[in-house]
Amino acid sequence: MDDEDTFKILIATDIHLGYLEKDAVRGNDTFNTFDEILKCAKQNQVDFILLGGDLFHENKPSRRCLHSCISLLRKYCMGDTPILFDVLSDQAVNFSNSKFPWVNYQDENLNISIPVFSVHGNHDDPTGADGLCALDLLSSAGLVNHFGRSQSVERIEISPVLLQKGSTKLALYGIGSIPDERLYRMFVNNQVTMLRPKEDQDQWFNLFTIHQNRSKHGATNYIPEQFLDDFLDLVVWGHEHECLINPSRNEQRLFYVTQPGSSVATSLSPGEAVKKHIGLLRVKGRKMNLQKIPLHTVRQFFIQDLVLSEHPDLFNPDMPKVNQRVEAFCQEKVEAMIEEAERDRLGNPLTPEKPLIRLRVDYSGGFEAFNATRFSQKFVEQVANPKDVVHFIRQKDVGEEGVDFGQLLSHSSTEGLRVEDLVKEYFLTAEKTVQLSLLTEQGMGKAVQEYVDKEEKDAIEELIRYQLEKTQRHLQQRGVLTEEEIDQEVQRMERGGRHLQQRGVLTEEEIDHEGERWG
Amino acid sequence: MDDEDTFKILIATDIHLGYLEKDAVRGNDTFNTFDEILKCAKQNQVDFILLGGDLFHENKPSRRCLHSCISLLRKYCMGDTPILFDVLSDQAVNFSNSKFPWVNYQDENLNISIPVFSVHGNHDDPTGADGLCALDLLSSAGLVNHFGRSQSVERIEISPVLLQKGSTKLALYGIGSIPDERLYRMFVNNQVTMLRPKEDQDQWFNLFTIHQNRSKHGATNYIPEQFLDDFLDLVVWGHEHECLINPSRNEQRLFYVTQPGSSVATSLSPGEAVKKHIGLLRVKGRKMNLQKIPLHTVRQFFIQDLVLSEHPDLFNPDMPKVNQRVEAFCQEKVEAMIEEAERDRLGNPLTPEKPLIRLRVDYSGGFEAFNATRFSQKFVEQVANPKDVVHFIRQKDVGEEGVDFGQLLSHSSTEGLRVEDLVKEYFLTAEKTVQLSLLTEQGMGKAVQEYVDKEEKDAIEELIRYQLEKTQRHLQQRGVLTEEEIDQEVQRMERGGRHLQQRGVLTEEEIDHEGERWG
Fold this sequence. Notes:
Two copies of one chain form a homodimer. By secondary structure, chain A is of the alpha/beta class. Chain A has three domains: 6-294, Purple Acid Phosphatase, chain A, domain 2 (4-Layer Sandwich); 299-398, Mre11, capping domain (Translation Initiation Factor IF3, 2-Layer Sandwich); 416-519, no CATH class. The first copy, chain A, is 33% helix and 18% strand. In chain A, helix 8 (405-415) packs antiparallel against helix 9.
């Protein structure tokens, strides 16, 4: 099928370059896998690479991360191999945000062998007054073609990049990440328009790339497939990390959806445990074929659930030494998973040695949790996540005991939760008990602003930690114990803060003025 | 003289891209001037551009700054103009730190018309475990040739980049910025070696680029010219911002030194008021010629000193309404400077409209300072620095009244002092009176660490501000007034802090542990 009329497109998404890059064990994972992906594109002599967003994990990637990315793109995507397809659309429209508004392979000063087309994701979206994102550094250097950027926040008109190889015509549509609720509303209000070429409409293969929630996170916090136009042939869905790359047919709209999934596990949840793949898409005329390609450099990840109350034969809370029995059982489970990972890795020299292992233990029903950190530490030589191999959950009585901030914070730092997840979790959990009392509006506002500006990725974590420690020390000092007393104390501290401010050297105006000076 | 044997080299340094980039008036200055410099190189059809360090103001330039820099380099330095000189040295040695260890114009995938060679400065020096600097992002993208990087911190061997154009042989030496004391020591201990080509040594023109203190900041806190080898022909000295571009002869070593100076004023000091230039260096055989080229996009800067006690005819401290007289006189002075700037700008459409104006008023001898901010604000429509047109100094009694933190901090924020200057100034000034009591060792250590890692450029400023505000509020609340009482209060606070820590929920060990978790 590889003839002069067939587009060969390598499809990947959510590569999350730089994820955990400071981790001694996992630090190189994302770069190794990006290397594998680019090498695969080169070996398969694809016409181009299509990325579905979140090439970078951080909105402001570290220098090392940018440097590695630039070097890899220059190594694999530049060279003498001729490009065998043309661009028919108005490139000044397709790439209107770029200072060099044309595809990189047509730039006479660059020798591009594999063009990369990418939309941006929610991790590497445009920010700031200039509306630049990390991809734009790559596009200004001529290494990536960043498409699917909307000019307006009220209305989206998607002008496809029209490509032709031999007799095959491919219309490439894309939307870079937009907050789900907003995009949902725009679809509902008919403010999203996909433009189509005027002539020979039915001869085009219509490929659409989107980076949004596909699974329903809330009434309007996702994009239903049926919102999309039915003239599409294939949708490449980014953002969702579970590999569901085999195209599934939407029976209402009669198009196919492929969800390549991330090429790195950024959380230890079941979806990430599905084996990671990229796709080799062939398009000839209106026909397509998607070949799954397994990624060998991806660290293995095995996850299992254990519900203690479902094993009354093995243990119940009233047994003597039940804790030791549970812990021993968990150890057997973990060791079995490690062995399974070892067998599975045989013959795959590219796969990192230490797997990710997660045992989720539901200890509802009167069981006690043992020390998860100490337990996990036993496997420090065998697993890549020796801080959190075991994770205790309680299906039935979550929330009864109020907020365990220590757990909450430790959780986020070890699992690499995204800050937005942390904040969401904080608000959800904290709502019932302390109702934001620990965080002053001013402090939270400032932290959120800093976070929004993406200048200070740790701003919110730092603030929460600071307030938590301050409060803990204060409460300890006063020997407060009951919940009621805690509430009173917190209110007292708040009043005190306001009081100091009112009486202090600095008036509110002066504080604002100070803030501006230091802004 | 522009023939096939003549190297034409554009020489510039300390461009400080991104300096004050968020300032509404001055934000584009550095980018406009970099544009002018590159345009000038193109118009003069130079063979290459030589930069003396500090291309970037920030160690971690903002996205906008990197994006602008990349775009400008791609715009001006790529194209079809052929490069007419060869590299004779071992490029794997010259560019051993690069993943692409060869000059960019010999890369078959890049069409370079003007190669840029640069050492790094102290503002954009390599940091972190990977030893990367901002220039390395440009070099990985093939836009700059970063040379003069030392592999060792104990010993430097400089292998020159050997270039030949027609019959002219040019040996290009360089050392990227190194802390002055360390480099001084290395020179004294004979640990700096400049390698020379084995054959035809006397046929080479030897050009050396250095980015260090040239003026003596302390016994060993600069590099004396006579430390440099006498086989050199010309030294291009970066780091020093005053334009002293006309080559001066070192009579001991018999080489010449040109100090191009920065292309933007990053402080309102007299050296920065000297008109800014870049150089067009021609080298043919062992002969050279350096043509000064004035920069038209540079914002004008006029500075004047006024010592009140030197005008007993006009005012003395005992006169009635002496303050008004002084202020009126200052206003006349400032207006005269503004007029001078206007006349000077006539016929230079590229020069920004609003000049930088600084009047330094020495009010020693019993005079009072008036409100400098309110005074400066009068010129908001006419000057680019409407917060600090006037600056009060007191030659005779500096330090008598202890530390004015507000002044210190406001000073740094408005004048764009570097953080290291701020810290130095803080320690110098604070030593006598408060002896670091306001800053806990722990806090300062953490902030310094963050600063050293260059991840958090505001860490130290933030800490000082936080401690200052906390202390001010506390002192105000308690109504402390005398210096002795302030000392006592500060000590009490320190003890209290330790006490809380000792009694608190968290032991020191736990705090350390917390710190690690959040590190």
